[in-house]
Design a protein that fits this description.
The protein has one domain. The chain contains five helices and no strands. The chain has helices at 2-86, 94-100, 113-119, 129-159, 167-202. α1 packs antiparallel against α3. The termini are far apart.
Length: 204
């Protein structure tokens, strides 16, 4: 009888131990799988961030390349504006306008692929909240700037049909616009510089 009891206890112990080991193995497997997924997600996030660093650097160069021309345009339109203040009856022609801005309002080539990738993955959830907000502001600002320049370009094309007497008003309007564009471009350049340093830290 005693032997039967001992045998039963041993079987129960063996079964319990086996179940315990299976549970431990399953739990360890789940932990390892979660760690693997987390590691892969971190690697994916780093790749996206490195891509964004390159993208923002390229966007910064693109916007920077516009600034000298826009400053020249501002100065040319400013001279015409000063003339208008002194000689209010003088009328400028479309030719004067296009001399002041021979290439129109040049539009920088701005890429947004990195931002789209970040938003379409879980990578954005792995970023510091302040950095996510800063990136969002930058991409919205550059999108607004690009859209604004494209709209102005359309208006310049339409302006060729404007009555000659309205050219002076158009020149004044473009003078104010180019000032605003320059402020936004310089703000973008500063924002690019600040966010790139933060992205480099995150991408380590």
């Amino acid at each position: 009888m005693l032997n039967i009891q001992n045998s039963t206890k041993q079987k129960i112990f063996s079964v319990t131990l086996e179940v315990f080991l299976i549970l431990v193995a399953v739990l360890l497997g789940m932990i390892v799988n979660e760690m693997r997924i987390a590691h892969n997600e971190r690697q994916r996030t780093k790749k996206i961030l490195h891509y964004m660093i390159t993208e923002i650097n390229d966007n910064s160069k693109s916007v920077s390349s516009m600034i000298p021309y826009h400053k020249t345009m501002r100065d040319s339109l400013g001279k015409i504006t000063q003339t208008l203040l002194v000689k209010k009856n003088q009328i400028f022609t479309h030719e004067d306008l296009f001399k002041a801005m021979p290439k129109g309002f040049r539009v920088p080539l701005i890429e947004t692929t990195g931002w789209v990738l970040l938003n379409n993955s879980d990578a954005i959830n792995n970023l510091d909240l302040e950095l996510s907000i800063e990136l969002s502001k930058i991409y919205h600002l550059q999108q607004f700037l690009q859209g604004k320049l494209e709209k102005i370009g359309e208006n310049i094309y339409i302006s060729s049909n404007i009555n000659l007497n309205e050219t002076n008003s158009l020149i004044l309007a473009f003078g104010f616009l180019v000032d605003d564009i320059l402020i936004q471009e310089e703000r973008l350049i500063e924002s690019y510089s600040n966010v790139i340093e933060k992205l480099k830290k995150e991408a380590k």
